[in-house]
Design a protein that fits this description.
alpha+beta, 199 residues
């Protein structure tokens, strides 16, 4: 029987990605909704890993015998002192559209040359195991901030995150290309390795 993993998210894309990566460990990933768990903890950590752990612990406290995963991610722009960072989802307000957020960041970088537009997507994955052990992993993708929004794929800051090695933004990548290099994919694969060691 597959070991059940609850991913503390409502995002179907994240559930699918985690499901594909953890399937080889014989793990079945389900959403909080499927597990009938409701938890909305305040994410007041100082790092991505702390915020991911806050979410994972909140769900773990309401379940037993399952592994709970949670993630926290963000965009860090070097020229803007690593903003928006851990506040990426709440940047300019939680209900503000990403079109507004993206255009604001592009405006703040007006006149800034390519070499100084360096940025990275960060993702931490936290796991709370049934015996109370906690694990965290980090995935990073380096790139630059573009000069305008480009691409219809992806979401959030993807249309302004330019990958020099691909010559396009993350919103212009195919699903396969994105999964191969995504910060969440890297963090999930690292977590799969950690979970293997715990068996």
């Amino acid at each position: 029987m597959a070991q059940k993993v609850i991913f503390a998210t409502g995002n179907a894309g994240k559930i699918r990605e985690a499901g594909e990566i953890l399937a080889e460990l014989g793990m079945e990933v389900v959403s909080m909704k499927e597990a009938k768990v409701v938890a909305e903890p305040e994410e007041n950590g100082k790092t991505y890993a702390e915020n991911a752990l806050i979410k994972a612990r909140a769900v773990a406290a309401l379940t037993e015998g399952v592994i709970v995963l949670a993630d926290d991610s963000g965009l860090e722009i070097d020229y803007l002192n690593n903003e928006p960072g851990i506040y990426s989802a709440r940047y300019l307000g939680e209900d503000t559209s990403y079109k507004v957020k993206n255009n604001n960041l592009i405006e703040r970088l007006e006149g800034v040359e390519d070499a100084k537009r360096t940025a990275r997507f960060m993702c931490a994955i936290a796991a709370v195991l049934p015996d109370g052990r906690e694990l965290t992993t980090l995935g990073v993708v380096e790139g630059r901030i573009g000069y305008e929004e480009k691409g219809e794929g992806g979401f959030g800051y993807d249309p302004i995150f330019y990958l020099p090695e691909f010559g396009k933004t993350t919103a212009e990548l195919s699903e396969e290309e994105k999964n191969a290099i995504s910060h969440r994919g890297r963090a999930l694969r690292a977590m799969a390795e950690e979970l293997k060691k715990c068996r």
